[in-house]
Write a structure and sequence with these properties.
Number of strands: 9
Distance between the termini: 37 Å
Length: 204
């Protein structure tokens, strides 16, 4: 890997973001972390000492031997692994991604028409308003249906099929869990990530 490629990889690696209460709320790229520090939106934390640094004082720190750094024309800057927001209590709330896994989780592996729990292999995703009638793939228009109910409803609306929903579909109220990019967890993050993160049950 040449120097340019190495620098790009470092800039694209992950940094942990804390709010002003020092609670981990997100990850970002090292590139974005440096930009936030430069504009005063965030400050860097030295994980080993908990010292907080503005951009200028961070840029003046010596880079430990054999440690990755960001190079400019005149500087070698330590990689900020943890930053803390200085102007906001938290980042804007993130929406829960609309995915097949999350839809099964929201509906608890249950047919939303008859209440059956036949197992995931025997459940399908039904568009409440069929796509042929302008229905979208969204939290408010998709539900789980067992294969029997799915065949019965076919290309009809629940009213047309005389199949009322057990509850109105909507986006789940969960807080999105802190996303850690696979393979990018840093040891320096351990002391900043709450027990809540580590105790989130793994989904099958």
């Amino acid at each position: 890997m040449n120097a340019a490629s190495a620098d790009q990889t470092i800039l694209d690696s992950a940094a942990l973001v804390l709010n002003r209460s020092w609670l981990a709320i997100a990850t970002t790229t090292v590139r974005e972390a440096l930009a936030m520090m430069y504009t005063g939106t965030a400050r860097a934390i030295r994980p080993e000492t908990y010292e907080v640094h503005e951009f200028d004082s961070w840029a003046s720190l010596a880079v430990p031997p054999d440690s990755p750094c960001v190079r400019t024309v005149t500087l070698r800057i330590r990689v900020p692994e943890v930053i803390v927001l200085s102007r906001l209590d938290r980042l804007p709330p993130r929406a829960v991604p609309f995915t097949r896994r999350n839809l099964f989780r929201r509906d608890r592996d249950t047919c939303q028409y008859c209440g059956a729990k036949p197992g995931r292999r025997n459940l399908s995703i039904d568009h409440v308003v069929p796509r042929s009638k302008g229905g979208e793939s969204s939290w408010t228009n998709c539900v789980l249906a067992c294969l029997r109910c799915n065949r019965r409803k076919a290309d009809l609306t629940p009213r047309e099929a005389n199949m009322p929903l057990r509850k109105k579909p909507k986006a789940p109220p969960w807080e999105p869990t802190l996303g850690i990019p696979i393979g990018q967890f840093r040891q320096s993050w351990e002391r900043f990530i709450s027990e809540r993160y580590w105790n989130v049950p793994l989904e099958p």
